[in-house]
Amino acid sequence: GTKPGSHDGSETDRDQQPASLEDCRRCGLWQSATQGVPGAGPRRAPIMMVGEQPGDSEDREGKPFVGPAGRLLDNALHEAGVAREEVFITNAVKHFKWEPRGKRRMHKTPAQREVDACRYWLDRELAEVAPRVLVALGSTALKALLEDTHARLQDYFGKVIEHGGRAVLATWHPSYALRAPDPETRERAYADIVAALARAKKLLR
Ligand code: URA
């Protein structure tokens, strides 16, 4: 590369400290993604919501939560009375991991080593935004935020825990509220997400 910290080879370099996401070779996911998707929202937003990884729409647009899961999240934020300006939205992993299924690109859950490699970017966002409250959307985000690969969503539901000087709340990933097979489960998951966001807001008072 020509820029400091950049890296041209297709090989990965787990110790690389890239200056920008487009140069990141800390894991191999950049190879099949359109682009890296950084977090979005105001610097110093008091609440940070963390998802898993960009989906198909996010990969194409370069912004987090702009597809179906993002629309659900927008509705949930609105219902919880949380303004978009109060939240920074990001993902545990910044590149879309997928496998071909016919003409579609099917989401694949990131491996722990990919989550670990991407912690570099999450740390930078945490330092820059300095949120007071973190909302983990799903288990990948929870594990990443707590730096505990064994953390299970069900053990953290409805609790506010402290980690690294910040309050952490855990709730479902919005995709679960979209895709759970039965409508009652989807509605309950959506209501849980709204409740978690309302609680996050309350913690700011
Ligand atoms: N799902 C996520 O976890 N993040 C996104 O940005 C979109 C869908």
TrEMBL record:
Region span, Disordered: 1-65
One Pfam family, short name: UDG
Alphabetized InterPro entries for the sequence: UDG_Type-4/5, Ura-DNA_glyco_family4, Uracil-DNA_glycosylase-like, Uracil-DNA_glycosylase-like_sf
Domain of life (superkingdom): Bacteria
Positions with biased composition (Basic and acidic residues): 5-26
Uracil-DNA glycosylase-like domain mapped to chain residues: 38-198
GO biological process: DNA repair
Keywords, sorted A to Z: 4Fe-4S, DNA damage, DNA repair, Hydrolase, Iron, Iron-sulfur, Metal-binding
CDD domains: UDG-F4_TTUDGA_SPO1dp_like
Record flagged with keyword Hydrolase: yes
One GO molecular-function entry: deaminated base DNA N-glycosylase activity
Family annotation (PANTHER family): TYPE-4 URACIL-DNA GLYCOSYLASE, TYPE-5 URACIL-DNA GLYCOSYLASE
UniProt record similarity statement: Belongs to the uracil-DNA glycosylase (UDG) superfamily. Type 4 (UDGa) family.
Protein name per the record: Type-4 uracil-DNA glycosylase
Naturally occurring in which organism (per UniProt): Trinickia symbiotica
